[in-house]
Amino acid sequence: MGVESFVGWLRDVAGAMHENAGYLTELDSAIGDADHGANMDRGFQAVVAVLDESSFGSADELLKKAGMTLVSKVGGASGPLYGTFFLRFGTALAGVDPITPEAIGTALHAGVEGVLARGKAELGDKTMYDAWAPALDAYDAAVAGGADLGAALTAAAEAAAKGRDGTVPMVARKGRASYLGERSVGHQDPGATSSTLIVESAARTLR
Amino acid sequence: MKKLINDPGDVVGEALRGMAAAHPDRLRVDLENRIVYRKGAPRSGKVGLISGGGSGHEPMHGGFVGVGMLDAACAGEVFTSPVPDQMMAATKAVDAGAGVLHIVKNYTGDVMNFEMAAELAAADAGTEVLSVVTNDDVAVQDSLYTAGRRGVGVTVLLEKIVGAAAEEGRSLQEVADLAKRVNDNGRSMGMALTSCTVPAAGKPTFDLAENEMEVGIGIHGEPGRQRLPLAPAKEIAALLVDPVVSDLPYTQGDSVIAFVNGMGGTPLIELYLMYNEVAQLLDRAGITVARSLVGNYITSLDMAGCSVTLLKVDDELVRLWDAPVNTPGLRWGS
């Protein structure tokens, strides 16, 4: 799989963020500060602008540029977190050829570890990690069972969605929502929701 | 949403353009990077003071740039922290060899972006950067299972006091130590009568009935810890002052700077009425008000409501507070 697949992924994510900007902001209004949708949309539109203007020789070069663009354009906590995800994801693919399902798994793990290093969240804190952790587990299990990339990413996307839904009854312990304490219960985490969109997009586009 | 705007996406840029046009004598605005600079910065031998955060808290922080306060302020999108590029550009621009202090409010995004900027500035230009993170909001009780207490009203008092110290030519370490001392001695608590409306969202962040109030709010329209029936100002003042006084704790005979801050949508007549209640409560507790500040200084767009901040002070802090300041948002002395 070549650079074009990753370009397709980023364009698809941008579309998903644009389409869901209002929904993400609505989720964020309930337990945050009502800017998540606008931020993600602005960040990924900036990524698309970079894709329109430049061409990239390798997947890692492309993904690192996407990560830096998100850090530079998004702000808030989402900028450093998603920026770090794509930076580390891209870095893990440097010099890797061919890009196998195993290599994508390594990159996903590297990206999520970057998110954890910046955000210091744990499972059950009601953050994006509650979508990423089950997604990684499902991906690893599928690849170990001999699944191809598309099937493994589909399994990851289904697990991410379940993880996202699982944030509804949780008490938030990180980020803006943590100030609500018990009152955060009953609301779906916006970060777990945007993360799920990214994994679902990967399942649609990375072949 | 009824607001004086053109397009929700252009609010911050156009407001900065307006600041630049309104204060050409005191400010220089980098519109591309969204940085408000003190005119004439950097100043040789002076520690550079930078703050910043999401927009929508005006006059904080851009309105506090000028003589006796900040050298630069980075403006993020509404309620969204600025990005590391902005802070790094500001850090390099105000460093006159004495180093730079980052004044950061404790919000996950602000902390992460300032951390990245400090790392980048050190790696890129060798700039010495120290940081202080303000976390004075007593509404957040349990810091073990949250992101920690929010930085609110004390940030304003800190920027003034530390600004005066930097103006005197103190070293970076001295300025950072002072900043920490101010933060450690200040506490705040806020409440809202209405939600704010973020321009990009287009509708109120939360719904509050006509007979309700939200106690323990932060400055982003994030709901507070408790929703209570609306009460007279006297009772609201006690709801704000009691947790602040008991948290430090302040003791009889302590001197404070008492700060009643409007959230943006409450008129001054009500803020002065609140200050009257706060002053009486402090008097009854045996706490002396050395200095006071009343007005809209760290706001939350059009939110109605207020916050109370107390800062325990000694003679040195009072002297620094009284030192001249000349910024669009705060101005006194020679």
TrEMBL record, chain B:
UniProt-listed PROSITE patterns: DHAK (PS51481)
E.C. numbers: 2.7.1.121
MF GO annotations: glycerone kinase activity; phosphoenolpyruvate-glycerone phosphotransferase activity
Biological process annotations from GO: glycerol catabolic process
InterPro entries for the chain: DhaK_1, DhaK_dom, Dihydroxyacetone_Kinase
Pathway: Polyol metabolism; glycerol degradation
Keyword set, alphabetical order: Glycerol metabolism, Kinase, Transferase
Reaction(s) the record says it catalyses: dihydroxyacetone + phosphoenolpyruvate = dihydroxyacetone phosphate + pyruvate
Pfam family of the protein (one): Dak1
Transferase recorded as keyword: yes
Domain DhaK: 7-332
Gene Ontology cellular component list: cytosol
Coiled coil among keywords: no
PANTHER family, sorted: TRIOKINASE/FMN CYCLASE (PTHR28629), TRIOKINASE_FMN CYCLASE (PTHR28629:SF4)
Assembly with partners or alone: Homodimer. The dihydroxyacetone kinase complex is composed of a homodimer of DhaM, a homodimer of DhaK and the subunit DhaL.
Protein name, as recorded: phosphoenolpyruvate--glycerone phosphotransferase
Taxon lineage: Bacteria, Bacillati, Actinomycetota, Actinomycetes, Propionibacteriales
